[in-house]
Design brief:
By secondary structure, the protein is mostly beta strands. The chain contains four helices and 14 strands. Helices cover 11% and strands 36% of the residues. The chain is globular and about 50 Å long. It binds flavin mononucleotide. The site of flavin mononucleotide has 17 residues, from strand 3, strand 5 and helix 2.
Amino acid sequence: MFYQPALRDHGLPHDPFKALVVPRPIGWISSIDTDGRPNLAPYSFYNAIAYDPPVVVFGSTLRPRQNLRKDSHANIEATGEFVVNLATEALREEMNASAASLPPGGDEFAHAELATLPSRMVRAPRVAASPAALECRYLRTVELPCDAPGRTNYAVFGQVIGIHIDDSLIVDGRVDILRCRPLARLGYMDYTVVDNVFAMDRPG
Ligand SMILES: Cc1cc2nc3c(=O)[nH]c(=O)nc-3n(C[C@H](O)[C@H](O)[C@H](O)COP(=O)(O)O)c2cc1C
């Protein structure tokens, strides 16, 4: 089959695009608002896009049926910082609960019954139960087209300035990612976990 996203001519019950760009890591993003109130939400349009220095990006839509930025996006632009917590299989229910659409200032940490830990370089707290966290300084936002009239999508970039790794993940000097089984998004309402690893040498 072939279809053009602009024409929505896939003939399927659901647009298959997101089922093809997989697995997508889940950026579990904590931030604070200008009053210091914490916020937490998952974003699966998320990835690392540079290494030296490390840079991450996530894609944010506007709030459904409102012409307002989502809280994570608004907080990050207002405070200039955020944290990306690693979402794991063990934390999947809490991750999902933290996607609840609370009013601005609503605390998804409390809503998902998650404890916080302070960060080192930024004021936004991190998820205590998450085995890794990237403390980020906001870089910039890029506006993206949106098919819905009058609406905009956004890509929010941050430079990673501090990295927490639970010592239990370090085995023989390397991160043993199978020890924490990161969660990732597939299409539809599907998820997967990183549960196997293989290595290949690059050609010289
Ligand atoms: C697994 C998962 C992935 C999500 N990915 C995104 C995403 O990439 N972009 C987005 O705008 N919303 C995404 N959402 C929805 C947001 O998490 C949701 O709108 C949330 O309420 C936003 O919270 P905030 O306003 O506190 O930032 C995702 C939800 C889930 C459960």
